[in-house]
Specification:
heterodimer; A: 666 residues; mainly alpha; ABC transporter involved in vitamin B12 uptake, BtuC; 2 domains; two-stranded antiparallel ribbon; 73% helix; globular; B: 283 residues; alpha/beta; Rossmann fold; 5-stranded parallel beta sheet; 5-stranded mixed beta sheet; 14% strand
């Protein structure tokens, strides 16, 4: 489909929905003269409906522009304001302000959110400083920062759910307006940002060439990148602070432009803005039409993903692979590490394991003092603590290896079970069991989670089949599925239903109630699946070399990819009921291993299992004790424990590699 | 199981001597159950989210020494096992924890709220049931009689002068409110006091709906009551919004603030809400 055709289709649909939405109130208001008093229809049309539609256009355009710039400058189709941590930073700032300094909110929610996004973006820059700001390094740092802010904000929200109810709505992106103030303010800010954006149009277009060629043309690539990212971050921050998180538009609108085969950055930016505005307007008009007076309040930001994700899935096969970042390969180097390095890596892993054991041992008494296990406590420990520690460690090992397999398989350092959406599928299963009456309600949460994970897996396989399991596309499909499922959970949470709180609690990954039987099950899954993964080590060594070399070396591509995908999905499905989908251990463990210099598949796989288990065991101990008497959810604490570590590694390491791109014709 | 409990009790004695006194030691996993226990004069030994009690439930006051089990999604099972209660009370809200709780002590579930033709029927039944279960039947009846007497009194005082329809809201932010009605506890109290709710829209199973403020213009002449806590930046934003400032009840200054009341509460919360409303309406 050409860009103009798609725009026409979208516009026509939008017009129909707008006509349906507006004809009755407009006729009403026109039919009678301005009456004295509060004419409800008139007030709602003038100060709620119309400004809201205008806001939808503004936000869609702003986020799409931000996403288009980010994707251009980072040369990564997964880049978006969400990926860079801009929205998560804003959300965390609002959460913190609400808890610690409510007076700040009185000064202006906008300012607080803006400061948060600026801080998270600056942190991303700081993490990649001095390393040439390579595209992949920035995206990876952005993901880590987003992960950290998101985990912290979610944790605080869970701890103070009653106070922070508002953030659920804000978090899901509500366009509801009560006047023209916010729209006018946002217009001014976007217009101000558009000036430098237009000035950078030409230099940015030159980035379509490789870095080296662009440099040869006299461009300072790192400076250009930083400037462009600052502009994109400002665009997204302005929108986010005005309405909340509507991240999916920033990802999908530029992808639509790309999928339509639009060439040249200027044209792509233009079409992205058009698609973004239309997409959000259409979504919001549909929400207003369907929700009306009768339906419960539905946040548009969440629904955007419901519409956008299927669209992205349909367009996926048409996406042309992006230009490869010019960095070196990851984990492709065979050969042994020098002996001192090996000893250092071994020591580090032993240290991690020790930390996990220590964390599992400590506890708190009802009066708050710290204790180590004693014989008197043994019955309680055997009944309650042992199972949770065992289950958490096994789940951590499974996720660590799943992440390792996925990163080798996709050749993408951002790949992980969390990103792939398998964990989110498990959440959807549990959500269905909670909310749908009848047959599903009777299922246990574990079974429901398993069904959801398998469902996502099946969808991924179906999409993968059409693209011959081309890794980047499977990953993008995972991102789309994730957004879709996140959106549904977001809508549920925004209704304020107590069952939604329960679902959020489950997502956080609480291990407190795990029985010895359940712990045995997950341990059995680990004992079964981890050796299976080890059997594939040859594939894992060869696949990162790229499709053509791997095939030349005798890897049956389609079968190997299918097997590894299935294996990773099974490991995730087994681990998610324990840790929830938010632990990000699957992303962290392989990076810890990489930073220790362990490259060979088999030792790296074992190290990923050990690192995953140790991180989660440590997190479990902290979750149990630091906020006593409150037990924090282990899954979220894992994300909080692992990410600063990951940040440290990122900041210290030489350029993060990117593995090979998929771009090999099959 | 028995041995484990005996051992837990001895541990509890060490850590928490004040609570190891005689009587059935009850852990209440729902605030509505806990407040009913307090009204019956049989305080629980442990509840969830004890640190939030004084902010959201306010009265009856929580006595010192009630152990905090943390928050509902992941309560502190290890702590509860050490405290070793004789009985654990749950509601539909904490139903999913029951299999785990049953590993510590016998679990009994009580229904906090059910929609029905007689206002406050279920909270009243709950108090009688708990009184029966804990050997406090006399206290339960006496408490309820006193409550009815007060409710009758307030109803009469309110009826002495004309009352506008009421809107009961929680501001979620400057753009959204939770508006109460339908089958919730507040609506029951309004019915009992003979007051009219100005919100007639749908409210969902739990008795409230989340809506934009423009939806509050349900009728011209009403009184709005907003529960604390108010979001810090809401008032400033509302003052600039024509949608808010031009609402008839806002222009007429008929907006009042009420202290926090537990929405998912039982009889004590109902009585507290009834008293606060009556006072606020100047009756």
């Amino acid at each position: 489909m050409r860009a103009s055709t798609l725009a026409l289709v979208l516009s026509a649909t939008t017009l129909v929905v707008l006509a349906l939405l507006l004809h009755a109130p407009v006729q009403d208001v026109l039919a009678r003269p301005a009456a004295a008093g509060y004419d409800v229809e008139r007030m709602v049309l003038l100060y709620a409906t119309l400004p809201r539609l205008a806001m939808a256009v503004l936000c869609g355009a702003g986020l799409a522009a931000s996403g288009a710039i980010l994707q251009q400058v980072l040369r990564n189709p997964l880049a978006s304001p969400t990926t860079l941590g801009i929205e998560a930073g804003a959300r965390l700032a609002l959460t913190l302000a609400t808890l610690l300094a409510p007076a700040l909110l009185g000064l202006g929610r906008d300012l607080v959110a803006l400061a948060g996004s600026a801080a998270s973006t600056l942190l991303v820059f700081a993490l990649v400083r001095g390393r040439g700001s390579t595209a992949l390094a920035i995206v990876l740092a952005g993901l880590v920062v987003a992960m950290y802010c998101g985990a912290l904000a979610t944790l605080l929200t869970l701890l103070r759910d009653r106070v922070l109810n508002s953030l659920f709505i804000w978090g899901s992106g509500s366009l509801v307006q009560q006047g023209w103030d916010a729209g006018l303010a946002l217009t001014a800010r976007l217009a101000l940002t558009a000036v430098p954006a237009l000035l950078l149009l030409r230099p940015l277009a030159l980035l379509d060439l490789a870095d080296d060629s662009a440099r040869a043309l006299g461009l300072s690539v790192p400076q250009l990148r930083l400037g462009a990212i600052a502009i994109a971050a400002a665009l997204a921050a302005f929108v986010t602070s005005a309405t909340g998180v509507i991240g999916f538009v920033g990802l999908v609108a530029p992808l639509l432009a790309r999928a339509c085969g639009v060439r040249g950055f200027g044209a792509r930016l233009g079409w992205s803005v058009v698609f973004g505005a239309l997409l959000l307007l259409l979504t919001d008009a549909t929400v207003q039409l369907l929700a009306g007076d009768a339906a419960a309040f539905v946040p548009t930001g969440a629904v955007t993903a419901v519409l956008g994700a299927p669209l992205l899935l349909v367009l996926l096969p048409r996406l042309r692979p992006t230009a490869a970042p010019a960095d070196a390969g990851l984990g492709t180097a065979a050969g042994h590490a020098p002996a001192p390095a090996r000893r250092r890596a071994g020591l580090a892993l032993a240290g991690l394991a020790l930390l996990g054991l220590l964390a599992a041992a400590v506890g708190r008494t009802p009066d708050g003092s710290w204790i180590l296990p004693s014989p008197a406590l043994w019955p309680v420990l055997a009944e309650w603590r042992l199972p949770r520690v065992a289950a958490a460690a096994a789940a951590g090992a499974l996720l660590g290896v799943a992440g390792f397999v996925l990163q080798r398989l996709t050749g993408n350092a951002m790949a992980s079970p969390e990103v792939l959406g398998v964990g989110a599928g498990a959440v959807l299963g549990v959500g269905a069991a909670l909310f749908l009456p009848g047959a599903l309600a009777g299922l246990g949460q574990g079974v429901a989670a398993g069904l959801g994970a398998v469902g996502v897996l099946a969808a991924l396989l179906a999409i993968g089949q059409r693209t011959r399991f081309a890794p980047q596309r499977v990953l993008l499909a995972g991102v789309a599925l994730n957004a879709l499922i996140d959106a549904i959970v977001g809508v549920l949470a925004a209704t304020g239903d107590p069952r939604a709180m329960r679902l959020l609690g489950w997502m956080a990954g609480s291990t407190g109630a795990i029985t010895a039987g359940e712990a045995l099950q997950i341990a059995a899954a680990a004992v079964l699946l981890l050796p299976l993964a080890a059997l594939t080590h040859r594939w894992l060594t060869l696949l990162p070399l790229g499709a053509v070399p791997a095939r030349a070396l005798g890897v049956p591509l389609a079968r190997a990819r299918l097997t590894l995908l299935l294996l990773a999905a099974l490991m995730t499905a087994a681990a998610t009921p324990v840790l929830g989908p938010l632990s990000f251990v699957g992303l962290m463990a392989p990076h810890i291993v990489l930073s220790l210099g362990i490259r060979q598949s088999l030792p790296a796989l074992a190290a990923a299992a050990l690192a995953g288990a140790a991180v989660v065991a440590t997190a479990d101990g902290l979750a149990r004790t630091i906020a006593d008497p409150i037990e924090l959810p282990t899954g979220l604490v894992s994300a909080l424990v692992g990410t600063p570590f990951l940040m440290l590694l990122l900041a210290r390491r030489r350029p993060v590699s990117s593995l090979q791109p998929e771009g090999c014709p099959a | 199981m028995h041995r484990r409990r005996a051992l837990g009790a001895s541990l509890a004695m060490v850590f928490w001597p004040a609570l190891a006194a005689a009587g059935p030691r009850v852990a209440a996993l729902d605030w509505a159950l806990a407040e009913t226990l307090l009204a019956l004069g049989h305080p629980p030994i442990a509840i969830v989210a004890a640190m939030d009690w004084n902010r959201f439930v306010v009265e009856p006051r929580l006595p010192d020494g009630v152990a905090d089990l943390g928050l509902q999604p992941g309560i502190n099972f290890e702590r509860l096992a050490v405290l070793a209660p004789d009985l654990i009370l749950t509601s539909a809200f904490t139903q999913q924890l029951e299999p785990a709780l049953a590993r510590i002590a016998p679990v009994e579930r009580f229904s906090i709220f059910e929609p029905g033709p007689v206002p406050l029927a279920q909270p009243r039944t709950l108090m009688l049931q708990l009184g029966e279960r804990l050997g406090r039947r006399v206290q339960a009846r006496a408490w309820l009689e006193e409550a009815e007497r007060r409710l009758d009194d307030w109803r009469a005082r309110l009826a002495a002068r004309p009352q506008r329809p009421l809107l009961l809201v929680n501001f979620i932010d400057a753009r959204h409110v939770r508006v109460y009605g339908g089958a919730g506890l507040y609506q029951n109290v309004l019915d009992r006091l003979g007051l009219v709710n100005a919100w007639t829209g749908p409210t969902g199973y739990w008795g409230y709906a989340t809506v934009g403020i423009e939806r509050l213009a349900t009728q011209a002449d009403l009184q709005l009551l907003a529960f604390e806590p108010l979001p810090p930046d809401a008032q400033a934003t509302l003052r600039r919004s024509p949608l808010w400032t031009q609402l008839p009840f806002v222009r007429a200054g008929r907006v009042a603030v009420l202290p926090s009341v537990l929405m998912f509460g039982a009889m004590p919360s109902a009585l507290r809400f009834a008293r606060l409303v009556t006072e606020r309406l100047g009756a």
